[in-house]
Design goal:
single chain; mainly alpha; 11 helices
């Protein structure tokens, strides 16, 4: 039995009439049911909820992208854009790379991929310049710029001892006094490996203009 209340007149798709919750969504992602395209109505609402409420659920978002692979006619660019932008707010996790592996590029997605590349290499100065020209993307996700500034603070606001301690704990590779590669071990078995290059810069220059 679905955890959602459905419109009794609807047979082709699912229409929740109650708030979509993480618990209920995850009940839809168990076993083979996670590949049911009828779940997309609920999952789309859940993705938009994450963007509005500043919550995040990578498992559900990856399920959406996988369903698009199997059902390309159901692809929604706006939903994909939100998923990618939300994944960027969760750097330096591997979420963005996992999402990227599940899709092909188009013009708008390519813009987000480029923003991701800038963040993955900690090129914050260019990132803020590019984002200023792509405000339509950041506007999709409430608190996006604040989340990126938090990332900049994390990477740029650490002293030498704090940075070394975190690098050792997370298995990051220190290349020299100015560079650290944030190699993600979970991606070693995937077709697209990923590392983040952290170049230690002046904190004011990487935080953006407010």
């Amino acid at each position: 039995t679905s955890p959602f209340v459905h419109n009794s007149k609807t047979t082709a798709s699912l229409h929740p009439v109650m708030e979509v919750t993480k618990e209920n969504v995850h009940k839809l992602l168990v076993g083979i049911n996670r590949y049911n395209p009828e779940n997309l109505t609920i999952l789309h609402s859940y993705v938009e909820q994450q963007a509005n409420e500043r919550t995040y659920d990578v498992e559900a978002n990856l399920a959406v992208l996988k369903l698009y692979q199997f059902n390309p006619s159901l692809f929604q660019l706006n939903i994909v854009s939100i998923i990618l932008m939300k994944a960027l707010t969760n750097l330096p996790s591997n979420d963005f790379s996992l999402c990227r592996c599940l899709m092909e590029e188009d013009e708008q997605i390519s813009r987000i991929f480029y923003l991701g590349e800038l963040l993955e290499t900690c090129n914050f100065v260019t990132f803020w310049e590019e984002l200023a020209q792509n405000k339509d993307l950041s506007a999709k996700v409430n608190g996006f710029e604040e989340s990126i500034r938090d990332l900049a603070k994390l990477l740029g606001g650490l002293n030498e001892n704090e940075l070394t301690e975190i690098a050792n704990a997370k298995g990051w590779q220190r290349v020299d006094s100015n560079k650290i590669f944030l190699a993600n071990q979970e991606l070693n078995s995937n077709s697209k490996n990923m590392s983040f290059k952290f170049e230690i810069e002046n904190l004011a220059s990487i935080m953006g203009s407010g």
